[in-house]
Amino acid sequence: MKDHIFNIHDVVLLMTAAECILLAIFQSVLPAKNKASSILLTIFLLSVAVSATCVLMLWNNDVRFFALFDHTLLPYFLTTSLLLKGSALYLYVRAITQDSFALDSKKLGHFIPIAVGIVWLAAFHIDTRALIWFRDPSTPLITKLAVNFIWAGVKVVPLAYVIAAVLKVRKYVSQLENQYSNFSPTEPGWLSILTYGFLCSWALTLIVHIAAEFADPSIADTFGLTDNYVGFILINALFTYSVVYAHQLLATKPEVIKEEKTDEKVTSQAIEKVQTGMEVQKLYLKHNLNIEEFSKRIELPIKDVSAVINKHYGTNFFEFMNKYRVEEAKRLLLDESCAEMTVLDILLQAGFNSKSAFHRFFNRLVGVSPTEFRKQAQKV
Prior knowledge:
By secondary structure, the protein is mostly helical. The chain has helices spanning 8-29, 35-59, 67-97, 112-123, 128-133, 141-179, 186-214, 217-244, 268-279, 291-298, 302-312, 317-334, 343-349, 355-366, 370-379. Helices cover 71% and strands 0% of the residues. The longest helix is centred in the middle third of the chain and has 39 residues, at 141-179.
């Protein structure tokens, strides 16, 4: 019988590369939140496809392209793709969450690690054999150090970028709470899970690299194979997210929620305008109210609105609005003339546009469900 060219682990790498290419093609014809996000997701998918192919060629002697690529160019393609995937993922997260994001010249700085990697490979004449056998006792010390630097770099740089992506998502949720009175937690929630997933996966690749230095090779191989499977799952999850949820994310304006200086005072006039907007104009009854529209309605700059809500009331825009909505809902639940109204009718009239958000806030602030609150009131 003929020997098998691929084992199951090689097949996973092949499937990852093939699927990423297909998804990149599919992505190019799908409607996107903006063109930049579509381009960045395509770059990310293609970088994963190239890296998976190069890893397969690196460790499977039966997979070959042509001599120049196999022996000389492969390290350059592998290094570039591994370094590129981190910045592409980070910028993609920014593109789908940040208002007016653009791929401009300022983003060129993210190519610096790639340029350093390419120069490093050329300076030390690192070829495919050196990448594989750098731990061999016969390998010169300078080559060992140079190759180890490259391997460490392609693990650490993407990990640093995915940490930045995780922090960006956390900041994004905070920005939503400062700028919107209503938003769905589903889309940012899944984005957070995805970024944490890539964080765990790419942290695992660094652990594999370290384990290979000090632990039994079989342990490092097990970790590395596990990472291949996890990566395949995450790629599918990211693409599904981009199709189903990404376009529903609300964009935020980073400049709106900048922290005010601690020595700046909130004026009584600003406080009065915010109170008038809430208690007289009852702007909280508007379902999709955001801080920009609120500031226009009360004729007060956004930074002053933020200062009043954050400093004077000690909360954010999201919490501030929904506390008023809960009070309005309580009033309606107690009003005998509204006895025929359902809880759904009441939450909509109170300014909520999400049943789950209404119940979450009501239970937290009142201590009982809206239905139980109404029943208790009727017994009195």
